[in-house]
Design brief:
Layout (H helix, E strand, L loop, with lengths): L1 E5 L3 H13 L4 E5 L12 E5 L10 H10 L1 E10 L2 E13 L1 H14 L3 E3 L1
Parallel strand pairs: 1-2, 2-6
Antiparallel strand pairs: 3-5, 4-5
Length: about 120
């Protein structure tokens, strides 16, 4: 089977990983549309007290994501020189670029092809 996925957002990259794992003989092509650099994108919140713990089907990528993620136990807001702290908010976050790069490496390791 030949599969093409347009875009290198986390959803498309993870879909490519899952498809390649389930059908290794399939050709999975990811088309990188050359979208703008996401360095300014906000981080992704993976877990907090109201979300379930992240559990992905691909354990290897799940472990890599959680190892790269940052954990915080509170929020600090700075505005106009004033700092407000609010402890007790547990979050696990990962930068958008870090997440994309982890998923991209995993997709390539599984044999997915990426074209620009």
């Amino acid at each position: 089977m030949k599969i093409a996925i347009v875009g290198t957002d986390p959803a498309g990259l993870y879909l490519a990983c899952l498809l390649k794992r389930r059908a290794p003989a399939s050709e999975v092509l990811i088309i990188d549309t050359g979208s703008p650099d996401r360095t300014g994108a906000p981080p992704h919140i993976l877990t907090n007290t109201v979300k379930p713990t992240l559990a992905l089907e691909d354990g290897e990528v799940s472990d890599a994501i959680m190892a790269a993620a940052q954990r915080t136990a509170g929020v600090r807001v700075v505005r106009d020189g004033e700092t407000i702290r609010s402890p007790g908010h547990a979050y696990t976050l990962i930068g958008a670029v870090v997440l994309r790069d982890l998923l991209r490496r995993r997709a390539e390791a599984l044999g997915c092809k990426i074209e620009t």
